[in-house]
Automatic annotation (TrEMBL):
Record InterPro entries: Znf_GRF
GRF-type domain boundaries: 18-59
Taxonomy, superkingdom: Eukaryota
Keyword Zinc-finger appears in the UniProt entry: yes
Entry protein name: GRF-type domain-containing protein
Annotated Pfam families: Zn_ribbon_GRF (PF06839)
Record flagged with keyword Transcription: no
Length: 139
């Protein structure tokens, strides 16, 4: 027997069967009084008139629930701030800046090599013309 199947059968023991003979879904409360506390609820709770609903975890001390709730609120605020900053960066980097970043290093090196070749050719021709000029003066 594999580890995953034994884990599944252990989970089976944690399941609850609701009044309509279905395995109830698991949820985690997010309210200030029960933040993080897990519970079972029938998947047809709202529609089928099966009002199976049961706590899975023991009641948490109020200060712990409130702490979890506050942590969740500040996590949401941080996520919102992160998304806003991400959007600002996308707006700033968008357009031309993004294109510059897409130019590969090989392309940049190749462009610089082309420029260097042009300068070397120009320098060589300058020396040849200078030599011809000086030789013409000496004759
Ligand atoms: Zn049910």
């Amino acid at each position: 027997m594999s580890e995953s199947s034994s884990a599944a059968s252990r989970d089976q023991g944690d399941n609850r069967t609701c009044y309509c003979e279905l395995i109830a879904n698991h949820f985690t409360a997010t309210t200030p009084l029960n933040g993080g506390r897990r519970f079972y609820k029938c998947r047809h709770y709202e529609t089928n008139g099966c009002h199976f609903w049961e706590w899975r975890d023991e009641e948490l001390p109020p200060h712990v629930s409130m702490f979890i709730h506050k942590q969740k609120l500040s996590l949401n605020a941080l996520r919102q701030e992160r998304n806003n900053l991400r959007k600002m960066v996308d707006d700033m980097v968008g357009g031309k800046a993004a294109d510059v970043n897409n130019v590969s290093l090989e392309e940049k090196v190749s462009n610089l090599e082309q420029k260097l070749k042009r300068w070397k050719r120009l320098a060589t021709w300058s020396w040849i013309l200078f030599a011809i000029f000086v030789a013409g003066r000496m004759m």
